[in-house]
Amino acid sequence: MSTSFTPVVVGSAAPDTPAPATPRGVAHRGGSANPSVAALQQRFGNAVQQVDVVWGETNIVVGHDQLLEIVRWLHDDPGQRYDYLSDVTAVEYRDPERPLEVVWHLRSLPFRRFLRLKVRLARGAAVLEVPSVWSVYKGADWLERECFDMFGIRFAGHPDLRRILMWEQYKEGFPLRKDFPLRGRFSRSEQLRQALAANPEARYSKEELSIADAFEDLPDDMRRRLTAGEKTGE
Amino acid sequence: MGLSRRPDAASVQVTGGGEPWVTTRLDFVVNWARANSLWPMPFGTACCAIEFMATAASRYDLARFGMERQSFSPRQADVLICAGRVPFKLAPVLRRIWQQMPQPKWCISMGACASSGGMFDNYAVVQGIDTIIPVDVYVPGCPPRPEGLMYGILMLQQKVKNERAADKSLRNEMEPDPRSQLYIPPSVIDELSEPFGNSVHQTRSGL
To answer: What CA–CA distance (Å, rounded) separates A88 from A79?
Structure first.
């Protein structure tokens, strides 16, 4: 892992684009799409299944299998430079026929672009699974864990796919799914009994409590300071 | 009018609990000291904690009630002030903090969420911390104004001043059932958590 850090200047790659301002008179539908879409269509062809411009933001639906490839290209390509994954989430619609959608919000700081990627997951699949983008964005780690925790969507390739908000022994299901009752599936006393049975200190793994494993990944100066005996958090 | 003679010892009747004069006076002194130096342990989880901070700050000034020393360690605290909603994931933490506090100890449940779950009648939030730990004073409000919290504190001081040192049962720890870790029966918890008001008519989502 590189320890050098070059600051990203917002808009530096596209000096001609206007500085951001509160948009006015934006149409609900239609308008010019994000220029990355044309580049994507040219490179990946039919993998881009649908393009919508909603309130001036571009949403594209891509194929399940090409997702990781597309995200990696958007991140790496010098003409795109989507360097910030701001959210990973999912949507389940009230219409039981409509597929679940997993949503990635990508932002390109150098080009001042925003792109929303969606993958549709067919109903009735035994396992809801999409590829993890953790290998491209390390920040996807907790976002994907939250999405798994709330929707039960598995992210193939995630290094540590555990619940993050609910406790790990939580047995009631996935709270943001439409078939999940608002008050949970168990009675209040049973919920409380299960919650109190948990040892509050047992939920943290050794990796979370210790930075020893991450020592090699730390920046040079921090490694020097830690080696010299400096304690963090004091 | 007036006393025509000094009451002699035989005519003085000890009423009530039958405790001798020394004990009641000792109670008074002990309770006076306790009530006026309650050290709060703030357990702030939500917006009520902001009001609690406002109460502790200079304008409302909790120090007037002997509470200027905020104890952020449960082992040196007298009052647990639970300010804010408590999710189920936090329930064992709150229980443990309460168990770490030495006797004598009291608990103020500040705000609607801590007292009853408030508007969060959902899968994640404990429906009243009295299902986890015993509570002395409930302060209603969403969040309560500092005046409300101070009124609750004054009520707690009244309660402390009326305690009797001879009554050992006041200082009994409530031991939870070792199997279920609940200290009140499950049926009571279900009854306490039963939704009321508009909440009853709320539809359950989905199938």
So the answer is: 23
Is A176 part of the contact surface with chain B (CB cutoff 8 Å)?
Answer: no
The answer to whether B82 touches B134, Cβ cutoff 8 Å, is no
Per-residue pLDDT reduced to its tens digit, A159-196: 888 888 888 778 888 999 888 888 888 888 888 988 88
CB atoms within 10 A of CB B35: 21
Residue B166's pLDDT band, with cuts at 50, 70 and 90, is confident
pTM of structure: 0.78
Asked if A200's CB is within 8 angstroms of B96's CB, the reply is yes
Fold of A35-165: Beta Polymerase; domain 2 (3.30.460)
Token pair of B109, please?
């449940």
Interface contact A175, partner B, CB < 8 A? yes
- Residue in A165, A187, A200 closest to B93 by CB: A200
* pLDDT bracket for residue B1 (50, 70, 90): very low
Q: Is the ipTM of this complex over 0.85?
A: no
**Residue A95 touches partner B, C-beta closer than 8 Å:** no
pLDDT digits (tens, 9 = 90+) for B97-135: 998 899 889 999 999 999 988 888 889 999 989 899 999
Q: Which residue of B has its CA nearest to A167?
A: B89
Please name every residue paired with B42 in a beta bridge, in sequence order, or none if there are none. B81
Residues A116 and A86: their CA atoms lie apart, in Å, by 10
Class of domain B39-165+180-192: alpha beta
Choose the closest CB to B189 out of A179, A192, A198.
Answer: A192
Residue indicated by tokens 């990944």: A217
User: Nearest to residue B135, comparing CAs of B107, B116, B171, B154?
Assistant: B107
Q: What DSSP designation does A180 have?
A: S
Taking residues A204-210, report their average pLDDT: 49
